[in-house]
Hints:
Two copies of one chain form a homodimer.
Chain A: H1 16-25, H2 29-41, H3 45-56, E1 60-61, H4 62-69, H5 73-85, E2 89-94, E3 97-102, H6 105-115
Antiparallel strand pairs in A: 1-3, 2-3
Helix pairs in contact in A: 4-5
Chain B binds a DNA duplex through residues 12, 14, 40, 44, 46, 61-63, 71-81, 93, 95-98.
Amino acid sequence: MHRIPADRLDSRIIAPEEVCEAIGALAEDSQVRRAAEIFGLLADPNRLRLLLCLRAVPGMCVSDLAAATGMADSAVSHALRLLRAQSVVRADREGRLVKYAISDKTIEDLLSRTVDHPL
Amino acid sequence: MHRIPADRLDSRIIAPEEVCEAIGALAEDSQVRRAAEIFGLLADPNRLRLLLCLRAVPGMCVSDLAAATGMADSAVSHALRLLRAQSVVRADREGRLVKYAISDKTIEDLLSRTVDHPL
DNA sequence: TGAATATCTGAACAGACCCGCAGACGAAGG
DNA sequence: CCTTCGTCTGCGGGTCTGTTCAGATATTCA
């Protein structure tokens, strides 16, 4: 069972038992931040659309993604850079095209759960 | 098979077939926005912590949540208001306490997938 | 090499977001 | 009634985000 950190002992606590249990249920700080970061990437309709495109058609290039989503090339590029930085998508250059694909299986699960199921 | 919207015909498209297929795979606009909104709620470490607490201990009150997460009461209240607005959590008054609980099964799934699995 | 094409990048702006503060509200108990 | 306590809310400011614009970079082909 966890203890209540010293810097919170002054706050009014109603049910100390439950607070301890809740603290015990919290994940590591870094893990929580990481999760929030990933969710943040999915929190934008345009990025979500890009990922949905890539889920259906892996290997699309930037300008096709722009055409499919109605975004400007530049906006697509910016968005993909963020997704790439977190290894959500992978980029493979082929000639002058750069083909993108979802590189994280977990993300695909989240997308399925999102679109297929109501949410 | 879908058609490419007229306002994008001027843009340079590499693989028209794939663009059409991708467009067909896109969900309804409102559905995408809704999903992005939900993900947005999970995109903040503090809100995530609150939800993790509530997942472990349903029915916690605001001040206990504040103690468990190290947030100020006010911040907890602000966060819970957003979550309530999207029916992610439910609030039940009991005397002067307000007890919160996760009201959406899908959200609990997402949380599990987040914390239990690496992500 | 030089032109054309696809993609990337940095700067700058508008808008959204999160939290602290101060005070209001609602419920219980003296 | 008045106080106390738990919770809520409007506002202000500091920060983060998404987009556009202009221009840089990379690759192909004539």
